[in-house]
Write a structure and sequence with these properties.
This protein is α+β, with helices and mostly antiparallel strands and 251 residues long. Helix content is 37%, strand content 19%. It has 7 helices and 11 strands. The strands form 3 sheets. It has a 4-stranded antiparallel β-sheet. A 4-stranded antiparallel β-sheet has the order 2-7-4-5. It has a 3-stranded antiparallel β-sheet with strand order 9-11-10. A hairpin with a 2-residue loop joins strand 10 and strand 11. It is globular and about 55 Å long. The termini are far apart.
Length: 251
């Protein structure tokens, strides 16, 4: 009987995320080689940890479905959220240097991942130049995201932080080929507040104002962007056109 392909066992070649995950630029044979080392396990449930701070580093993880947050705690027990990860993103990069995870990763919804044992991935990367470049690209993205997050916290006011967060999420959905003006976002407002260095009350107040101004509505897990231009303007993001070019800020 032929194998039935599902969202949790489809090969890299048949995965809908192949253009934004590891297989970018790989030939069919190279994808098959990558697929040979990928391990696919049952999906994580909401609030289940993929790995915890202090766990030994063995693998990188490519998200196939769902949303994850990467977080840690201060010595005083205060939570710090370092980022939110969507399908096509890779988590676990934090442990490359010390071979121990510095942060924890938790599923915010039912989440499936591809496990990539790092020793095998490293061996394969030496044989496949495109794959090696992709690994470095992922490392570069982590560095850039971290610096942009620092800029967000130090240079933007509360309204701009919320607007930039929402627009960056929309852009990430758009880049994955999903609907980006209306999408499901399984992230608690409390977690957004922690990530943006705000209070939950401030987040609620700004979201209520964005809704009142008919710019964005975020109720429960559903986000609707009513005025894309107004949201981009508030976030301080711009696009290049034939007359001018200014920076685009990504999260």
């Amino acid at each position: 009987m032929a194998e039935v392909k599902t969202a949790f066992n489809a090969s890299c070649l048949n995965c809908g995320l192949q253009k934004i995950c590891f297989p970018t630029g790989l030939s069919r044979a190279e994808m098959d080689s990558l697929d040979h080392i990928v391990q696919r396990k049952p999906p994580l449930q909401k609030n289940q940890l993929l790995f915890a701070a202090g766990d030994p580093f063995k693998s990188l993880y490519a998200i196939r479905a769902g949303v994850m947050k990467v977080f840690s705690f201060t010595d005083g027990g205060e939570e710090i959220i370092h980022g939110f990860y969507l399908p096509g993103d890779v988590v676990g990069v934090d442990a490359l240097a010390g071979k121990v995870h510095m942060f924890s990763a938790m599923a915010l919804d039912a989440t499936s991942v591809c496990t990539l044992p790092f020793d095998e991935l490293s061996d394969l990367s030496r044989e496949i130049p495109h794959l090696n470049k992709q690994v470095f690209s992922i490392l570069s993205k982590e560095v850039v995201d971290g610096r942009l997050h620092s800029e967000l916290l130090t240079k933007k006011n509360a309204d701009q932080r919320i607007a930039q967060f929402l627009w960056s999420m929309a852009e990430r959905f758009k880049n994955r080929g999903y609907h980006y003006l209306e999408f499901r976002l399984s992230i608690l407002h409390r977690d957004v507040a922690i990530y943006l260095g705000l209070t939950p009350e401030t987040v609620s107040r700004i979201l209520a104002k964005l809704h009142q101004d008919d710019i964005v509505t975020w109720k429960k897990k559903e986000v609707q962007i009513h005025n894309e231009e107004a949201l981009r303007t508030l976030a301080g993001t711009h696009y290049c056109d034939s007359n001018s070019c200014s920076k685009v800020v990504w999260l």
